[in-house]
Design goal:
Order of helices and strands: EHEHEHEHEHEHE
Bound molecules: NADP nicotinamide-adenine-dinucleotide phosphate
CATH superfamily: NAD(P)-binding Rossmann-like Domain
Structural class: alpha/beta
Strand content: 15-25%
Helix content: 40-55%
Strand order of the largest sheet: 3-2-1-4-5-6-7
Number of domains: 1
Shape: globular
Radius of gyration: 17 Å
CATH class: Alpha Beta
Mean pLDDT: 96
Largest sheet: 7 strands, parallel
CATH topology: Rossmann fold
Number of helices: 6
Oligomer: single chain
Low-confidence stretches: none
Length: 237
C-alpha cells in the first residue's frame, strides 16, 4: 500500500459535502492537500487549526478554465509535486427527456464533465512525473444506471465514467491510475430534496471519504477502474 506521507492531493469543491469529508479524512491520514473552491474563503473554516505547511487553498471555478491552470500551477509551485486529483465538484439539476432546458443541461456538462476533463489535462503532466499519480472522478450511480426520465444529470455522469476510463488508458504507462467512483445517494446538500429515499438512509460522506483513502493507498498493480457504492438494493448492482 502507498503511504500518505509527502503526497499532495488536490480536491475540487472541498468546502462542503463529499469534498469536505474527503479533505478532512485525507488530512487526518497525513496527506498534504490543495483544496479548491469557487470561494476560497469558504475553506477557512475547514482548514482552521490545520498545519499551514500541509495545506494550500485555491480558487476553482468549474466554468473558468484559467482558475484550473492557476490552481494546479500554484499547487506544484508550493509543494514541488502532485500525486493525486479528486475531481469532486459537481451539480445536479433537473432536465428530463422532454425538457428543452439546454441552458441547465449545458451548465451540467460544463461543471460535471468539461471541468474535470480540463483539470485532468492540466494535472496529468505532473501526475505522470510522480510515477504513481491518482485521479478519482466523483461520478455517480447515475453514471451507471438510469432510473427515471430525469436524464440530464445521468448523461453527464455516464460521460464522467467514460472520461475516467479514457484517463486510465492515457496515463497507465506512466503509473497514473484513474477511478470512477459511483455512489448512490449520499447525504449532502445535493440530496436534501430527494423524496424517494430518507436522508438518514443515504451513504454518509465520511464513508465515501474512507473509500477515497483506500483508492489512494492501492499500488499501481491494484487499480480499481470503477467502484459502485450502494445504500439500497439498486436495480443494476
Ligand atoms: N450527494 C449525492 O447523492 C451524490 C451521489 C453520487 C455522486 N455525487 C457527486 O459527488 C460530488 C459532490 O457532491 P455533493 O453531494 O458533495 O454536493 P454538494 O454538497 O452540493 O457540493 C457540491 C460541491 O461542488 C461545488 N460546485 C458546484 N458548482 C461549482 C462550480 N461551478 N465551480 C466550482 N465548484 C462548484 C460546490 O461549491 P459551492 O459551495 O461554491 O456551490 C460544492 O463544493 C458531485 O460531483 C456529485 O455529482 C453526489
Amino acid at each position: 500500500m502507498l503511504a500518505p506521507d509527502g503526497r499532495v492531493i488536490m480536491i475540487s469543491g472541498a468546502n462542503r459535502g463529499i469534498g469536505l469529508a474527503v479533505a478532512k479524512t485525507l488530512y487526518d491520514a497525513g496527506f498534504n492537500l490543495s483544496l479548491g473552491a469557487r470561494d476560497p474563503d469558504s475553506l477557512a473554516e475547514v482548514t482552521g487549526g490545520w498545519a499551514p505547511e500541509r495545506v494550500l487553498t485555491g480558487r476553482y471555478d468549474a466554468e473558468d478554465f484559467e482558475t484550473h491552470r492557476q490552481w494546479v500551477a500554484a499547487t506544484v509551485e508550493r509543494f514541488g509535486r502532485l500525486d493525486g486529483l479528486v475531481n469532486n465538484a459537481g451539480i445536479a439539476e433537473d432536465v428530463s427527456v422532454e425538457d428543452e432546458n439546454d441552458e441547465v443541461l449545458d451548465r451540467m456538462w460544463a461543471v460535471n464533465v468539461k471541468a474535470p476533463l480540463s483539470m485532468t489535462r492540466t494535472a496529468l503532466p505532473h501526475l505522470r512525473r510522480c510515477g504513481a499519480g491518482r485521479i478519482i472522478n466523483m461520478a455517480s450511480l447515475a453514471g451507471k444506471a438510469v432510473y427515471s426520465d430525469g436524464i440530464g444529470y445521468s448523461m453527464t455522469k455516464f460521460a464522467a465514467v467514460a472520461l475516467s476510463h479514457a484517463t486510465r488508458h492515457a496515463g497507465w504507462d506512466d503509473g497514473v491510475r484513474c477511478t470512477a467512483l459511483c455512489p448512490g445517494y449520499v447525504a449532502t446538500d445535493m440530496t436534501t430534496d430527494v423524496e424517494t429515499m430518507a436522508f438518514d438512509q443515504m451513504i454518509e460522506p465520511d464513508d465515501i471519504a474512507e473509500v477515497v483513502l483506500t483508492l489512494l493507498a492501492l499500488s499501481n498493480k491494484a487499480s480499481i477502474a470503477e467502484l459502485v457504492v450502494n445504500c439500497r438494493a439498486d436495480v443494476l448492482y
